[in-house]
């Protein structure tokens, strides 16, 4: 049965609407705290590179892969710092370093996602430690999304890093014996929220 011109127009408008909706869709993800860790690396007295990490991380990711845009919010619990030594953990939580009682969260908020073709390569944004906020660029070394049978939902994951100076965030105690430059590493997985 042939369609009239009016029916063709209606079908074309409906198809265009569906394509536009799909192309511009932004998916909302919640960071999976069980598979997300933030860590840091620094030079200790010129002897060795030492590492610590934060065990409690949370946040959200909004991602439009077709539009190559999105937003990232990562909140790190400063009280969850873990170095392998409880004495050192207490020192890191103290006012000499993170002052975790007064400033319990370290926060990264993105301002722009940078793609090279279809691959996420950088995340520009701002990092807040204590009461200081500075611009940073996260270099993304791995990024992928797929449907996860474990959750029966889509999930995305990424690894990245950035370098900062402790002195820029008022946590520069023991410089130069402990390096001012610190590398921050991020291992993030996030699960897509169910949409209606």
Please summarize what this structure is.
By secondary structure, this protein is mainly β.
Written description of the protein model:
There is one protein chain. This protein has 196 residues and is mostly beta strands. The chain has one domain (26-192): Lipid/polyisoprenoid-binding, YceI-like (Lipocalin). 14% of the residues lie in helices and 53% in strands. It has 2 helices and 11 strands; from the N terminus they run αββββββαβββββ. It has an 8-stranded antiparallel beta barrel with strand order 1-4-5-7-8-9-10-11.
Overall SS class: mainly beta
- Termini separation (Å)? 35 Å
Low-confidence stretches: 8-23
CATH class: Mainly Beta
The CATH topology is: Lipocalin
Strand content: over 45%
Q: Sketch the topology as an H/E string, one letter per element.
A: HEEEEEEHEEEEE
Q: Provide the helix percentage.
A: 10-25%
Main sheet overview: 8 strands, antiparallel, barrel
Quick check: average pLDDT? 89
Looking at the structure, what is the overall shape?
globular
- When the domains are counted, the total is 1
Radius of gyration equals 22 Å
Tally of strands:
11
Instruction: Please list the strands of the largest sheet in the order they lie side by side.
Output: 1-4-5-7-8-9-10-11
According to CATH, the homologous superfamily is Lipid/polyisoprenoid-binding, YceI-like
